[in-house]
Amino acid sequence: MSDFFNTPIKFLKGVGETKAKMLEKELEISTFRDLLYYFPFRHVDKSRFYKISELSGEMPFVQIAGRFVNFSIEGEGAKRRLHGIFSDGERLMECVWFSGIDRMKSAFQIGVDYVIFGKPVAYRSIYSISHPEVSVYDPSKPPVGFMGVYTVTETMRRRGYSSRLISTIVRNLLDNPRLAELPSLLPEEVKREYNLISLKEALIQMHTPTDAESLQKARERLKFEELFYLQMHILRFSRERGRKIRGLVFPIIGKYFNDYFYNCIPFNLTGAQKRVLKEIRNDMRTGRQMNRLLQGDVGSGKTMVGFMSMLMAIDNGYQGALMAPTEILATQHYETISEWGKQIGLRVELLTGSVRTKKRREIDDGLRNGDIHILVGTHALIEDNVVFKNLGLVVIDEQHRFGVAQRAKMWKKASIPPHVLVMTATPIPRTLAMTVYGDLDVSVIDELPPGRKPIETILRYDENRYEVNRLIQRELTAGRQIYIVYPLIQENEKLELKSVEEGVERIRGLFPDVEVCMVHGKMKPDEKECQMEKFVSGQARILVATTVIEVGVNVPNASVMVIENAERFGLSQLHQLRGRVGRGSDKSYCVLMTKMKIGADTKKRLTIMTETTDGFLISEADMKLRGPGDMEGTQQSGLAFALKIANLTSDGQILNIARDAAERILNAHPELVAGQPTQYDKKGEELHLSTESVAIILRELAYRFARKIDWSQIS
Ligand code: ADP
Ligand code: MG
Fold this sequence. Notes:
The protein is α/β, with parallel strands linked by helices.
């Protein structure tokens, strides 16, 4: 690699030993390359005034000259905000203030020439800047320029260094004539094919942009580079795995599947269920081990897909297993599946920690001699002493409770590992799933069975309790059951217990005629099961619980879900909880309870819940609000750290293109993947590279992933 690129930072004009030490310690900048890749966290364009008609998708902070034409105060309470309509003489845009409303309103006048400065975003059909800087227009003021603003640490600040230090030394570096020696980090063929600017140009524009459009191009190029290497890295691993791990081949669809499908199935499969079954069928006949993630909103009918996939295994002479995270869930699945299986003469058994010796011996025998077609269970199912005759497919329900280690344990059970289908109702946007789960293929059931009654979601404050209690009473009188959920309070378990226990007392007082049961995190498993069982059987009509009920219990008779301190839950969690109701034929309700005083953001978040029941929309909104770093799976993957400029939430399009590029290159260059190529290496379009370009890729992968995050192990 170029010496220039790797020159220690202390040799840069304006740095020296002391600053070099500080840069290294505080910002991990030790070479010229590190500095060039230390990007501004935002850009400020005060080089000129923009017209509203020039605003576009991703803008830096810009200034616009014009006048306010109207002010209005909208909303109430936490939602109260000031809207100012701003005109540049041609078009209108909007300024919004959520705080300091009255002060702002009296500070600005209609008809005076102002300059507003901030980051415009497209909101509905109009551009909007929230909390802009507003100053009186002064034509004698010289333009300030277009520049990057850099993050510096608190320690640096204390020593008197700011963003300006980085600005200055970056400029010194960009002025260096040896910048021409910058190596190419992307192959020429890729740059040409995907129309990308040179690295040198991109870095210059990123740090010292000339205009918004060039900056945008520079960003795209750098994001592409980052995502391209990320995808390359992930895909190499997954292809390598495909080469090393053979899979069972299930060539036929036979009598069990057909008998069930044509004679027994109690409803018509939805289009999405059919499509996913086809995807699974295709996987299981290739000779590669299937490793598929099935995402489907709560109630979308994943169980039937899991069951029918197992029928494919059974038709080919193999056994199926279904693993659930809790005993209650395993029992429910067992009841459903043995009911379905009975009709076509299958033997289905349940294995949990509480199965006693005699029954256990029966199950062991049945598994070994192949009498048992399907085994349903908790993780007792993957203990070493459970031996199958020939396990062909493992279906795992609610993936996030099972780690990779547990999945790997399943695979060890046979010389050729069984296929694995992981079902989850935690929807993750596809682009993110692709990246986070690396080698898992993703299927999506994006359609609910017809005839579902909608769940009405309402946001209520403590002050409205009376009304909520009336709703509960009405539903109880109609024979329904009620969930009341309290948040887990991890930092203070005593407090958690107190809130649940007080909740139970209060509820018992309010509804003395019905039995109330209680489940919380501190209970022993036996006791928990016993309480849950009371609710599942209908003996108890109200269940007060912390989030233990989050995963999958099915009580179709329950019609109300009250969530206390709803603001403490993430949106995806709320969505999961809400999915516990609306399973019967009656209208259901989800009540989000909060205290009166909640912030505008919280309110906005909770309002999303009242507006949609689409799990994917909710998950996307959740991700936008919290960032992908908080999403399930991303944390342990270190993904959040790996990315400097690209954003998995908003750069889905570039991510797709980068993935396409990586796929095409791997198709053309199987030598980039370890192991012997097989007939199962994916085939598709190819993008051929010169030997030199292949070398660039290998060098760059080694540089970027020296820390070696093992993406293939993430799930
Ligand atoms: P989830 O995807 O949340 O696991 P389930 O598999 O529990 O959902 O299905 C929810 C309910 O919908 C079950 O009662 C199931 O029998 C029913 N169901 C599944 N598929 C269909 C369908 N195509 N048409 C009608 N009902 C269906
Ligand atoms: Mg389910």
